[in-house]
Amino acid sequence: MQQNSTAKQAMADSHSKRPSQGIPDVIFKWILILPATIAVIALLIFPFMFTLAASFTDWHLFNLNAPINFIGFKMWASVLTSSYIHTTTWNTIFFVGLALPLEFLLGMTVALALNAATFGRTFFRVFFLMPLMFNPIAVVFLIGKLMLQEDIGPINDVLMGLGFPRIMWLSDPFMAKITIVLVDVWQHTAFMILMFLAGLQSLPQEPFEAAVVDGATAVQRFRFISLPLLGPVALTAVLIRGLDAFKVVDIIYSLTGGGPGQATESVTLTVFRTGVKGGDIAFGSAASYLLLILMAVFTALVLFATRKWVRVSY
Amino acid sequence: MAGERLVGRVIAYIILVTWTLVVGIPTYWLFITAFKRPEAINRGATYIPWVDFQPSLLAFYDVFVLQGLANSRPFVNSVVVALATATISTVIGGAGGYALARFPFRAGPFNNDRIAFGFLIQRMFPPAVLLIPFLILFRTLRLLDTREGLVLVYCAFSIPFVVWMMRDFFRSLPVEIEESALIDGCNRLGVLFRIAIPLSAPGFVTAFVLVMIGSWNEFLFALTFMFNKAVTLPLYLTLQTSIQAGTEYWNMAVIAIFSILPVAVAGLLLERYITRGLTFGAVK
């Protein structure tokens, strides 16, 4: 790394001594990076600050001519004490808390099986990646609205044929939460498979050979070699997927609309409802920052819980 | 030893076949639903064509001929928005990635690694935080319900990702080739266009396809800012299923298939390339 950057430095120097050849490096490098930097500052960082500022006002779009006042933490107080926000926050945590471990375990299991397979590997790998390419709304349609349809869906048809009662996948408030998780698991386990498979294939072979010579069983090899070495990959996978899961909104909006009642509504959907549809800019802004805080806490907890056995190098 | 290995392999294939069914059956169900007539759906679950229902092309006729005009607009919107976003963000992000991979930067506390991390971290923030400022921006600039607006938002999300990915890619290319070109009298632009870009073509293809898939599948911003003219396929699918209370499953299945097909085909063909992009370079 150090050597590499010295080489690059040398390359830059050798060139700047010959001014006859077009644009000098110092200008060239800024021309290359400026558009991306401006885009990020103008379209991401500035809007983030804007939302933070808006969360301390009483801005409401439907009070057309009313002046916008800074009211300090009043809006935050009403967000934090709102039972509506409490419900949707718990819904979001419930969703992440169920979907993430399920995807993690299923993904690791399937990836281990794939790694042990001898023929048909490419087929399985490509086939298992497929759900990740589907748009979430199509996944909602094929899992939530076709497979799990309460009256004419094949899953209830088979279950009832086996003597089970009809399961109210969407009209029962608790089952609706589960159904949302199932839709997400069907699609995003693919990501975990992808991560773990890439991790397994990048493991060095020597420890395994040595363990085989020493007479370790497959279970022992997994427990004492694969698992510790997979640590960094597992941590990255949990962080990426977990943070993504906190943002859930599309499958909920198009499957249940947040219902029945508010049984499945996530924080992002609340921001959409109050801030965008309801015009309550201030409330929506504070609620969206609440989600950001929630995600930061999640990241801190994951990093803290795994500090003993995983070191990330970013 | 040999016995243990055999048992392990049998278990592995049981798992693989199970997961193939989990992924395959719903996909199969989506395809056969598109070929069902209304009666074959409404009377209860029917499983196998020609055995318990007679396949028909009625839904395809409905979607492409009878409602072809209405259905073509969201499709065209999705294609235009996805391609425009992918092109713009690959160019801008690729330039940024190249700069960060090949030139030393120093701006206050920021060096190359920190700037790159600053780009990466943008991807972790919740889009919900951006809904409200973009709502104000779109109302002010009259971008509501326009494809241009959607491309703007999607580029904002994609550019940081492309910067991060392409920086990683350029760094994996040997710098010596570019050095020797410089010594041979090629200028910086020449090095970029004649050497760096051709050598990193696979990286650009990966970035392009991933951004294309991402913006093709995006839902929240399309839902917030597009109502009529510039509706994209995922939004259209949602609107259709809720308007008709989800009763015309056969037509919906056809639309769903065509909302999946273009990106799924592109993604699966380039599977090898995009795996690295999807794992964020977490696994080298």
Distance between the termini of chain A: 14 Å
Stretches with pLDDT under 50, minimum 5 residues of chain A = 13-20
Low-pLDDT ranges of chain B: none
| Shape-level CATH architecture of chain B | Orthogonal Bundle
Radius of gyration of chain B: 24 Å
Helix content of chain B: over 70%
Kindly give the count of domains of chain A. 1
CATH superfamily of chain B: MetI-like
The proportion of residues in beta strands of chain A is under 5%
Q: What's the mean pLDDT score of chain A?
A: 85
What does the radius of gyration of chain A come to? 25 Å
Class computed from helices, strands and strand pairing of chain B: mainly alpha
Described by the principal axes of the CA atoms, the overall outline of chain B is globular
Describe the global form of chain A: globular
DSSP helix fraction of chain A? over 70%
Largest sheet of chain A: none
Mean pLDDT of chain B: 85
Distance between termini of chain B?
32 Å
Number of helices of chain A: 13
